[in-house]
Amino acid sequence: MPTLPSLGGLRGRGNGRGRLRPPVPVPLSAYIVDCAVYVDGKRLPGRWTHAEAIKEVRRRRDGFVWIGLHEPDEQQIQGIAEAYGLHELAVEDAVQAHQRPKLERYDDTLFMVLKTLRYAEHESPTTANEIVETGELMAFLGVDFIITVRHGGHSGLARLRRELDEDAEQLSNGPAAVLHAITDHVVDQYLEVSSAVEDDIEEMETRVFAPRTQVSAEQIYLMKREVLELRRAVMPLAAPVRRLAEGFTRLVPDEVRSYFRDVDDHLTTVSERVAAYDELLTTLVDATVAKISLQQNTDMRKITAWAAMITVPTMIAGIYGMNFDYMPEVHTKFGYPVVLVVILLACLLLYRIFRKNKWL
């Protein structure tokens, strides 16, 4: 059976003469969410390309450029990297994503990676397959520019940009103020997600310790996996934020450094919460396993008790089924009722003993 040509093959076909055309390049504007020039904390009117924006700032020798990108490929970001002097290793990390939170310095440029989080709404934590959704946010910080690269559908910065556009005093501190606002925004998301996860853990804890409720250990392990996602986003970010708060680079002025200390305090709060969640879930796993073991022991006692009571009539019936001539009460008129009464009394006696010992 012939196979259909791939989409890439169709893009490369000519006009029937057998010539191949190169794939149509996607313009950089498809990946740029916004590009703006800020002078004295105010956004200049008009639409700017990345090259025009940085030329305008350097011509004025004042202000900075903020470019927002969404999941660009290596070819599309290359023009910006050349115009703004971005290091090739940082560009590679920004394109490939799947990086852990970190802060690196390349000459006069900082490269920061943050994990974004979003709480996935669900009916119950005992039935949900996913509780925390993750994304990534990278930022290139220079003297007169900041470039943000987003990966994921929930890490948008449009609302944050609108809020900053109305706060000229904060933007007057330069691109480092934007980096602080982004970091603060991400950490605030951590606080919201951790609070929602805490509610789920409390609900699961209530169900685990409530009588006659069934919570599987697998579901608690799923919750531990989601908490691990939180941990991977929160814990590695502590060192980069602390370095920014301590002012290890001149790209972060003293006015902005104090704000990073506040972000560091919030991040510490989230870190303590996540550590407590992990310990609590470990306790819930142990409690669930103990509860399952106790239930199994109870079921085994019940099975043993019923088996013992069934053994009595089975044993007596087995004896009388041997067909010997000289069996007790075989030729007695009331032998059959007597045997039935003996079986019933023996079963009632065993039932009472097992009930007294709480086996039934």
Please tell me what the overall shape is: rod-shaped
Give the overall average pLDDT.
Answer: 82
What is the succession of H and E elements?
HEEHEHHEEEEHHHHHHH
Q: Which range does the strand content fall in?
A: 5-15%
Radius of gyration over all CA atoms, rounded: 35 Å
What is the fold-level CATH name, i.e. the topology of the largest domain?
Beta Polymerase, domain 2
The end-to-end distance, rounded to whole angstroms, is: 67 Å
Largest sheet: 7 strands, mixed
Poorly predicted regions are 1-28
Question: How many domains comprise the coordinates?
Answer: 2
Q: Share of helix among residues? A: 55-70%
Describe this structure in words.
With 360 residues, this protein is of the alpha+beta class. Helix content is 55%, strand content 14%. The chain contains 11 helices and 7 strands. Strands 2-1-3-7-6-5-4 form a 7-stranded mixed sheet, sandwiched between helices. β4 (102-106) and β5 (109-119) form a beta hairpin. α10 (254-320) packs antiparallel against α11 (335-356). The longest helix is centred in the C-terminal third of the chain and has 67 residues, at 254-320. The protein starts with 6 loop residues before the first helix and ends with a helix. The model is unreliable at 1-28 (pLDDT under 50).
